[in-house]
Amino acid sequence: MSRIPRGLRPRLIVSALVALTTMSSIPAHAGAPESDASPMACAGWSVETVASGLDEPENLEPDGAGGFYVSGALSIVHVDADGRVEPVLDDLSAPRGLQLHDGILYFVVGPGLSQFDSRTGEVSKVTDMAGHGLLRLPDGDFLTTDVGTDIGSPSRILTRYDPDTDSAEVNWSPVPRSEGLALSPDHSRVYTDDLFTGQVIEVPLDAPDNWSVVATVPGIFPGLDDLTMSDAGVLYAAAHAEGAVYSIDPLTGATCVIAAGMSPGWTGPSSVRIGPSSDGWALYATVFDGTLRRLTPPPGVDIEPVRP
What we know:
By secondary structure, the protein is mostly beta strands. Helices cover 4% and strands 39% of the residues. The strands form 6 sheets. A 4-stranded antiparallel β-sheet has the order 1-24-23-22, with no helix packed on it. It has a 4-stranded antiparallel β-sheet with strand order 2-3-4-5, with no helix packed on it. Strands 6-7-8-9 form a 4-stranded antiparallel β-sheet, with no helix packed on it. The longest helix has 13 residues, at 9-21. It is globular.
């Protein structure tokens, strides 16, 4: 979900190398049960293009009817199940994370959190809380992330907002950096990732200070971006610098590439979500090259999304 300005890219590479030197000081995952049989499926995925010509697509959110809302450089569009693209909101200031609940599309923009009523077309501001990624928790609170471009100067890395009291807890969890957000199947934890180091981080909702690293995607700078989780407990993460999508088992730390060669470099995958397909469930990815792709798992592999 991080659109990287061209002039900032060399700085990000340097920052990534600096971050990699500090990995040994970050807490490792402990206490998770080992598993001999990983639920991951690494081979046999097929990739097809659902829509193209999108405006630097950042993030996507299922609409509950087989389509998606997609945020781009300056707009939010709707892509239906047949790949038809219709405008929703224009002239926005860098819309990023999206979440849909009861017909209300929440989106991070400009900076701040706003909402769009899909039934009336009304747009209103929720809060000035800035961020990149966005997750609505089961209790109605929101989490937002900050990629942490300035190494050593985190300001709003992982923030929690309570709409009932209109209050934000900045740095609710003191993770080093944060990109995407995903909720665990039992709703007890959230997962995020680090653009610079490729680390995947687990944060208990009832003890956000006790975060831990559960996996690390290999490579110098895969550029982990958004991620999502299946009801079986498997994480899927977009690696836009590498041009790949990863499957990750947070219990064992195992990782594998399920789709590669997806516009590697600065135009690779930005976001992933699980949505319906003609054969059940599939993984969908926005790619900074302007496409929405469908990743269909091999036969017998169920990637049903986490239930609300």
